[in-house]
Amino acid sequence: MAVSQFDSEQYTSEAFVESVGAILFRLSRREVCVLHLLNRDEYVLAKGRRNCGESRKDTAVRELMEESGFSCRLLHLDMSTRAPSAVETEQLGDEAHFYTGICEPFNLQLRRLKEGDVKLIWWYIAAVDEDQSFNEGHTGGAEVCRGILQLH
């Protein structure tokens, strides 16, 4: 039996959790939304766990609404990724390729939890739907102060 040349780790379903979040911008005012967790005095970006059967994109939009109170949309970006294009016209090597106008996570964060458990956090870029009203949302039980930081 051949042995892989790559280091690898495997986690059964009870040992990992998958979360999705986004950096949320209000484009018209050049602002970014951050959450202030009052009970920990910590500033964070909105994110949360993916439900069974839910797509990552749907999770991101739902969690942003629940945690920030803002209706939003995920932005299509020009970026490099190792994922193949939606329509493969040729066999590409396992290397990054540049695409325009794709809606994909720009970052994957691996957070090691207690011994043997991990959290995968997929990050997107999103924009506030400015024609929609603000919704208090639920905060998963956390005391949250929503804030907007002005970008320069």
UniProtKB/TrEMBL annotation:
The keyword Hydrolase is annotated on this UniProt entry: yes
GO biological process: AMP biosynthetic process; ATP biosynthetic process
Limits of the Nudix hydrolase domain: 15-152
Transmembrane segment boundaries: none
GO molecular function, a single term: bis(5'-nucleosyl)-tetraphosphatase (asymmetrical) activity
Keywords: Hydrolase
Coiled coil regions, renumbered to chain: none
Stored InterPro entries: NUDIX_hydrolase-like_dom_sf (IPR015797), NUDIX_hydrolase_CS (IPR020084), NUDIX_hydrolase_dom (IPR000086), Nudix_hydrolase_domain (IPR051325)
PANTHER family (alphabetical): BIS(5'-NUCLEOSYL)-TETRAPHOSPHATASE [ASYMMETRICAL], DIADENOSINE 5,5-P1,P4-TETRAPHOSPHATE PYROPHOSPHOHYDROLASE MUTT
Protein name: Nudix hydrolase domain-containing protein
